[in-house]
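agent: user wants the full assembly modeled, not chains individually. Plan: 1) parse entity lines 2) check alphabet per entity 3) run joint structure prediction 4) return tokens. Steps 1-2 passed, three entities, 468 residues total. Proceeding.
--- entities ---
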Amino acid sequence: MTTVLDRIHQLGFSLPTPPNPVATYIPTIFCGNVLLTSGQIPMVDGELKYKGSVPSVQPIEAAIRAAEICGLNALAVASAALDGNLERISRVVQLRVYVASDLGFTDQSLVANGVSDMMVAIFGEAGRHVRVALGSIGLPLGATVEVEAAFEVHDS
Amino acid sequence: MTTVLDRIHQLGFSLPTPPNPVATYIPTIFCGNVLLTSGQIPMVDGELKYKGSVPSVQPIEAAIRAAEICGLNALAVASAALDGNLERISRVVQLRVYVASDLGFTDQSLVANGVSDMMVAIFGEAGRHVRVALGSIGLPLGATVEVEAAFEVHDS
Amino acid sequence: MTTVLDRIHQLGFSLPTPPNPVATYIPTIFCGNVLLTSGQIPMVDGELKYKGSVPSVQPIEAAIRAAEICGLNALAVASAALDGNLERISRVVQLRVYVASDLGFTDQSLVANGVSDMMVAIFGEAGRHVRVALGSIGLPLGATVEVEAAFEVHDS
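--- prediction returned ---
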């Protein structure tokens, strides 16, 4: 059987180490059978890989990569909450995608497709979610993209 | 009996054709008995009717109309998910209203009242919801307003 | 026994009078056993105490205070929905913190820590929540910070 982790690797992605909590908030919480994540930024190995707004500092293509990394971090913190068993995710319910935007930038949807398409590539039909994408004047630490996710989870 | 659709028409509104999904995300999802919508922008017949920020490009009055259209699109996608039976909506739970704003614009609440007031006009007390309104530096496709909605739904 | 209200007072805070609804939306709604609040701004006794963006108008320290007040208002409206019995809050589930930001401001997390740290100080481990913090080009009435909260509630 192909696992979720297999599909992540087949797509050329890898699950990052979940970032350590840096404040009093926590990376995930269960609300009934829904696992909510805190806002994820494109951290890789403790370093923020994509900083600055689109398109003056980061071109759209880079922002799409940033959105993918945010999504991988959401999966990484979900995995930690699920004892490493991503098979327990029965559905991606919702993604909110915030894009650090220059005045006049209106392609937030293209950026958000980075993480939306990745979730569908990984989870198939169960990866199809509702989504909100919008521009932000500035994101934590200067991140290019921030993503929050809600996953539906079944018992192991 | 006056249906929800009757009330929509009596108020001078009409339910648009739900916009076709343009990406891998979907317009609505059930999360238990709550129907969540993706972010809705003021599309009418496949055309974005209100573009640009408030108030430099769109005056507040236009933005209020834009918010109404976003709300009607939320009802349209909900209707599609409910086989056309909007009577199954037992409550409007939550609206998030994002307003494309110029620097210094602080009347996001007035704009959001467009969709809040409309929901109460349509659903009466069951239309009273919690709400978040905020300014955005830029919304998808240059939309003036974006609205996401959560409806509580009972069995048909 | 130390009540939630005791801890609020011990920390030097006090619960404000919940702001009256100024539009057709409502301050809180139950969604199952989760109590959702509308976006709260730093109103004290009917007056908006912190206006303007960070850091040009409000330094970070002031914005942290503003975030605390938003959190206290969220608790005030929750208290009103719970007949004054804040002991019914079993967990702080989620906070979304919107910070009115100048171009180039990227310390939204520091501002959001104001309300996150306060919730943990009040509720202990049960106060640890998932969080999203982001910059906004402009918030209702010119507020410096806006916070929406979700509390898990048990029967009295």
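agent: reporting back. Residues 60-81 of chain C form the longest helix (22 residues). Residues 4-12+36-153 of chain C form a domain with the 60s Ribosomal Protein L30; Chain: A; fold (CATH 3.30.1330.40).
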